[in-house]
Amino acid sequence: MVAALREARHVVVLTGAGVSAESGVPTFRDAQTGLWARYDATALATPDAFRADPALVWGWYEWRRAAMMRAAPNPAHHAIAALAKQVPALTVITQNVDDLHERAGSAGVVHLHGRLMQPRCFQCGTPWRYPVGIPDEPEGGRRVTPPDCPRCASPIRPGVVWFGEGLPADEWQSALAAAAGCDLMLAIGTSAMVYPAAELPQIAVNTGALLVQINPQSTSLDGIAHWNLPGAAGITLPALLHTAFADGMNE
Ligand code: APR
Ligand code: ZN
């Protein structure tokens, strides 16, 4: 595996919520702690939910935004950012809506499921900017009326992709091209249960890439990965990359 990493011409890193877990940002499907184990996705993460009760949805995402703003990138995010200097080409594709990859120094990150820090009008799509500061929200949020769009007065919505919505077309096309064109993919911290993002590792393998999975749990990728590293991303990934690139990773 180390030789494969050293020889790779184009590496793709595909991350899920697990890469941010060690930053204190909850995942979705971990037992007990996962967001969908504690909150109702159908009442919080669909367009109909927002239409039915915009204040409930906006308030919940304000709580999540506060948690993300208080979080810091962990060693996995930093190792991914440093990897860009060690390989000829690196594409970071994330399902996460936080900005921890960017805050660790990764550039050009492909956000398949949107970016919480980029809210927009629910109706006309006009971008909106959060006020300065971290909202002070209780666990799970509270009902907070969303701001109105300055152009059409419709409610502003979180900049994330909800269940039942399509992925941003440009992001998806970039992800498809990278998955089909890479020679090694690192799938880190994803349960690989949500499509179409979960197709990307299979596309990579089908087009000849080697697949490395980093996840403490078993997933559907176990059977197609060439290497399964059952560890926490913040420990396993820096160790792997230091082994492959030695001092280069200390920059
Ligand atoms: N290091 C690596 N992996 C971890 C860690 C860790 N420290 N902690 C947890 N994991 C793994 C879990 O074992 C799990 O397989 O991260 C994975 C997280 O899976 P999910 O919670 O399902 O998150 P994700 O795969 O990103 O979900 C995909 O589902 O609800 C939607 O839009 C949401 O983008 C999200 C999508
Ligand atoms: Zn509008």
UniProtKB/TrEMBL annotation:
Its EC number is 2.3.1.286. It holds the Pfam family SIR2. Binds 1 zinc ion per subunit. CDD domains: SIRT5_Af1_CobB. Its main location: cytoplasm. Zn(2+) binds at C121, C124, C149, C152. The keyword Transferase applies. PROSITE patterns: SIRTUIN. Its cofactor is Zn(2+). One of its GO terms (molecular function) is zinc ion binding. InterPro entries: DHS-like_NAD/FAD-binding_dom (IPR029035), NAD-dep_sirtuin_deacylases (IPR050134), Sirtuin (IPR003000), Sirtuin_cat_small_dom_sf (IPR026591), Sirtuin_class_III (IPR027546), Ssirtuin_cat_dom (IPR026590). Residues 1-251 form the Deacetylase sirtuin-type domain. Substrate binds at Y61, R64. 2 residues (Tyr-61 and Arg-64) present in a large hydrophobic pocket are probably involved in substrate specificity. They are important for desuccinylation activity, but dispensable for deacetylation activity. Belongs to the sirtuin family. Class III subfamily. This is NAD-dependent protein deacylase. The lineage of its organism: Bacteria, Pseudomonadati, Pseudomonadota, Betaproteobacteria, Rhodocyclales.
